[in-house]
Amino acid sequence: MSVISDIMQYNREFVGNKEYEEYLTDKYPDKKMAILTCMDTRLVELLPKALNLRNGDAKIIKNAGAILTQPFGSAMRSILIAIHEMGVQEVLVIGHYGCGMAALDSEKMVEKIKANGIPDLVLQTLERSGIRMERFLKGFDNVQDGVMQSVEIIRNHPLLPAFIPVHGFVMHPDTGELELISEGYEFTKPR
């Protein structure tokens, strides 16, 4: 069986047995928070459990390294929609130790891209269009710096209300232990 066949079979049983009922909620986060975190597989179940989150408690936005590289990308758009449309009142950026984005080597990544069949011409065209692979594929030297980069982009965003606190954390991916890097309340202004 293929992965898709397995998924479809399981899904039919899941729906047929009404297992979804324990997850019913609405689109507004009960704990009024948005979390930008890493897509690392170790955090899929660990992060919500370590934060005492249930389905419906928070908007969780994931990408490689919990990194915002620009203030007008899709992850930042998701944060702004969560605030302005979904009632989010706090933002958490949660990186983790052992992240694959730590010291990511963009040159080696480009070599892997080529090895996977992407022609040099495509990469050259992107470079001529202003896409710099060393910037596009840039990681961070340490996870605290990566978290703070994202925290600062969010805090300084022109569309972020001044009363929304933005916090930074690093999580241990084995235990779920959180380390507070930056508490955002001191940077907010009253509503």
TrEMBL record:
Keywords: Metal-binding, Zinc
Residues spanning the signal sequence: none
Residues given in the record as Zn(2+) binding sites: C38, D40, H96, C99
Stored InterPro entries: Carbonic_anhydrase, Carbonic_anhydrase_sf
Reactions performed catalytically: hydrogencarbonate + H(+) = CO2 + H2O
UniProt xrefs under SMART domains: Pro_CA (SM00947)
The protein's name: carbonic anhydrase
